[in-house]
Design a protein that fits this description.
There is one protein chain. By secondary structure, the protein is mainly β. It has one domain: Immunoglobulin-like (Sandwich), CATH 2.60.40. Helix content is 0%, strand content 42%. It contains no helices and eleven strands. The strands form two sheets. Strands 1, 2, 3, 5, 6, 9 and 10 form a seven-stranded antiparallel beta sheet that branches. Strands 4, 7, 8 and 11 form a four-stranded antiparallel beta sheet that branches. Strand 1 and strand 2 form a beta hairpin. The protein is globular.
Length: 160
């Protein structure tokens, strides 16, 4: 039997965790499964940070070599997406100083949150999360009004 993977997002002051999210849309509110047209980002500003991580359930011995990058979708003028591998903090719309998300493999290496490069010894009914990946869409005054291009993020891992 293999591990089961799903995206998880945390929001709010007290870390309200939602597993099985349907999107990682950016906007002007700290909410899960956000609809961007309802929460637009003001030009020259930034989205609220998205604290996402991957959740594994099922049976496995080791999940390792976890990598994350933006694999598809172009940027509009003045747009960037920042990524930091961090501990959870209340999301903010203040532009952070994280690095741009990689656009090619190997991408960012994501650990288990325990300081180890793997999530080990899964068993039925036992879950494991990766570290948080803090994402934020940032714009400049040159970013055109309206929707930006859709992007695809890739998360890759090895399972034993």
């Amino acid at each position: 039997m293999a591990a089961t993977f799903e995206w998880s997002e945390s929001n709010g002051v007290g870390e309200d965790i939602t597993d099985g999210i349907s999107n990682i849309n950016f906007g002007s509110a700290d909410i899960v499964n956000l609809v961007p047209s309802a929460y637009p980002i003001v030009g020259g500003g930034a989205s609220f940070e998205k604290y996402i991580r991957c959740k594994f359930t099922g049976v496995w011995t080791e999940i390792s070599n976890m990598k994350f990058w933006k694999s598809l979708g172009s940027y509009v003028a003045g747009e960037s997406i920042k990524l930091g591998i961090v501990d959870y903090a209340q999301p903010s719309s203040t532009p952070n100083a994280d690095s741009n998300v990689d656009e090619t493999e190997p991408g960012w290496v994501v650990n288990s949150g325990e300081g180890n490069p793997t999530i080990e010894y899964g068993a039925t009914g036992v879950s494991g999360y990766t570290q948080y990946m803090r994402l934020q869409l940032q714009t400049t005054g040159s970013t055109p009004a309206g929707a930006v291009h859709q992007k695809t993020f890739t998360f890759q891992y090895d399972e034993v």
